[in-house]
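Priority: medium. Attachment 1 of 2:
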């Protein structure tokens, strides 16, 4: 169900549990809010009646709008399920809270009890009885507020009057005596269950314990309710409330929930202990007999006188003549007949007569054949036989009967039986493409105890289910059945090696061929690693996913020594020749003549230049100042030379200072 959308609106997100229904956490995709979806299995044998019953129950929930009752948001139905959508309550149920925090402080118990009663009172005022008040149906939100759930299974009194005699609703630990006996129920049924819950809130234990549910139900019917003082000291007024709530006869309990509320408000003012109503007093209360008129006892004068004995004529004459011999056999026959008649009368009076009704035996855990044999012996007939899955009963065994055991059934009547199909098999869903964590959580919630996974690399995100051992749609039983999934470990990582000392070009080519990204973070001088080779990398080794970035530092080679730049100013002379000075016959006026340019070559020997090669060339027409630069490293010297028209005019050596 996880991931499916029901009613074209609610996307199932998580399985929460089940009881009378399968309960899921879902998202309302229209309003974008969390909701609880309860999916109640429809009766396949009587779909129309099941739908009508569900509709009546839904009508009852629509009437309820109270801060202490879980709100019903939506209803729907399918061919297989009735769907009830309620608000989400983030918090534990009261049973979990009791187990974790018991014993509770009395003030906290009173607060929880009063909120619960207000919710019950709201429902009772609208003719709705819960019939299953118990801590498991009381939720506590994050603010500690009580929220009563499962009013959706109640029936409006205006439509159904009271629960039919053969119908028992509710958990047996909190069931009222009249529910256990299959009798009519009213508001006081919820008050009894509330009293049991109040006992548990104060003591952390249940009032009745037994090996079977039937035994617990019988204790609710016949055994006195335990004295809470045996388990905890509480105020007399609070003890009185529990005793009155849990009276065996409904007539002796509080009539309405607001009566209990009033008693809780003033319980501290009560000092006199409550006296339970005795059974004899109850019978006097329940049965008002008409007065019996006694016949006056006759006095002696009216009493019958002794009957006189008259002698027969023969006897009177006995002395006169001998008696004749009489026949004895008529008298013997008469006596025998009389004795036989008397015996027949005694047998008739004492012989047990067949009752017009039969107290139905408990047929749980019997086969249908055994039950039919018993029913035939009691002049009863088997009625409707329906089947359902139930983990608590073996296949073929009777779960319950309608009417329930202990009910007086008229001879010739019918008894319906609900028969177990055994444990309900789980229909495997298709989990391929879902996350393994979600699938395993759902299966474990359904009762599977042997769920495992085998991992393999793939292009799917890690945790995604690739395959499953049990095909979709196959039915299997959860307990002990192994379910295996093939789960993605994501893309397979690729190993890398240490490329220190390898040229950047070679390392880059190899790493990029494996899908990695090479990033040069910086370049440094190194006396150990050649220029252009990798000095260090991060990460340096291991298995990594393709697309990961490998950061490297590259060598610049050895670090050069310190350098010093010298600026040298040269005074380059312009050469003077005799031809130029003597051949002036035609140009006597030297001021007006132009000097002929000459070529100057400068040679530099330093860190960057070779003295044998010309570093700079220029032309001059007069004496010229010119500046050159020499770059010298530590421990080295430099030199420079100047030639004018091929003739060396300057030559110097410079040492680094």
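Attachment 2 of 2:
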């Amino acid at each position: 169900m996880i991931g499916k959308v029901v009613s074209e609106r609610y996307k199932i997100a998580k399985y929460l549990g089940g009881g009378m229904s399968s309960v899921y956490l879902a998202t309302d995709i229209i309003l974008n809010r969390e909701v609880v979806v309860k999916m109640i299995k429809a009766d396949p044998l009587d779909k129309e009646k099941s739908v009508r019953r569900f509709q009546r129950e839904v009508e009852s929930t629509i009437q309820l709008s109270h801060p202490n009752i879980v709100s019903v948001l939506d209803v729907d139905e399918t061919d297989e399920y009735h769907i009830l959508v309620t608000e989400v309550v983030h918090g534990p149920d009261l049973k979990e809270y009791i187990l974790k925090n018991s014993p509770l402080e009395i003030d906290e118990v009173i607060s929880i009890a009063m909120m619960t009663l207000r919710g019950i009172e709201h429902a009772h005022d609208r003719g709705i009885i819960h019939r299953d008040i118990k801590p498991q149906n009381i939720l506590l939100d994050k603010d500690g507020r009580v929220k009563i759930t499962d009013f959706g299974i109640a029936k409006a009194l205006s439509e159904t009057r009271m629960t039919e005699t053969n119908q028992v609703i509710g958990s047996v630990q909190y069931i009222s005596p009249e529910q256990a006996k299959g009798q009519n129920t009213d508001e006081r049924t919820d008050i009894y269950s509330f009293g049991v819950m109040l006992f548990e809130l104060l003591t952390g234990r249940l009032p009745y314990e037994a090996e079977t549910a039937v035994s617990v139900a019988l204790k609710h019917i016949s055994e006195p309710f335990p004295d809470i003082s045996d388990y905890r000291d509480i105020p007399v007024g609070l003890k009185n409330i529990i005793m009155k709530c849990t009276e065996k006869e409904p007539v002796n309990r509080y009539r309405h929930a607001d009566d209990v509320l009033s008693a809780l408000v003033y319980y501290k003012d009560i000092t006199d202990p409550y006296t339970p109503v005795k059974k004899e007093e109850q019978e006097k209360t329940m049965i008002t007999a008409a007065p019996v008129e006694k016949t006056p006892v006759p006095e002696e004068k009216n009493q019958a006188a002794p009957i006189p004995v008259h002698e027969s004529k023969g006897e009177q004459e006995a002395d006169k003549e001998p008696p004749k011999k009489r026949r004895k056999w008529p008298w013997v026959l008469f006596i025998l007949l009389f004795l036989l008649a008397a015996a027949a009368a005694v047998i008739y009076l004492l012989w047990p007569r067949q009752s017009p009704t039969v107290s139905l035996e408990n047929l749980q855990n019997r086969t249908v054949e055994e039950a039919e044999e018993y029913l035939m012996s009691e002049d009863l007939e088997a009625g409707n036989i329906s089947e359902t899955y139930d983990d608590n009963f073996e296949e073929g065994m009777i779960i319950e009967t309608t009417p329930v055991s202990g009910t007086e059934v008229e001879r010739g009547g019918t008894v319906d039986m609900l028969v177990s199909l055994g444990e309900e098999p789980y229909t495997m869903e298709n989990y391929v493409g879902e996350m393994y964590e979600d699938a395993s959580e759902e299966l474990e919630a359904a009762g599977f105890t042997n769920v495992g996974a085998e991992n393999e690399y793939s292009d799917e995100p890690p945790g995604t289910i690739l395959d499953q051992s049990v095909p979709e749609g196959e039915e299997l039983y959860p307990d002990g059945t192994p379910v295996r999934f093939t789960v993605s470990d994501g893309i397979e990582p690729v190993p890398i090696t240490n490329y220190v000392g390898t040229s950047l070009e070679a390392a880059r080519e190899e790493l990029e061929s494996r899908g990695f990204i090479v990033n040069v973070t910086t370049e440094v001088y190194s006396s150990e690693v050649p220029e252009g080779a990798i000095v260090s990398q991060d990460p340096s080794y291991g298995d990594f996913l393709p697309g990961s970035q490998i950061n490297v530092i590259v060598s610049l080679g050895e670090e050069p020594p310190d350098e010093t730049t010298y600026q040298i100013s040269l005074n380059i002379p312009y050469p003077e020749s005799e031809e130029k000075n003597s051949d002036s016959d035609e140009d006597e006026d030297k001021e007006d003549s132009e000097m002929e340019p000459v070529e100057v070559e400068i040679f530099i020997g330093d860190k960057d230049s070779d003295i044998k090669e010309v570093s700079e060339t220029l032309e001059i027409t007069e004496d010229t100042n010119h500046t050159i630069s020499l770059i010298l490293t530590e421990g080295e010297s430099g030199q420079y030379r100047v030639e004018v028209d091929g003739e060396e005019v300057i030559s110097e050596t410079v040492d680094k200072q």
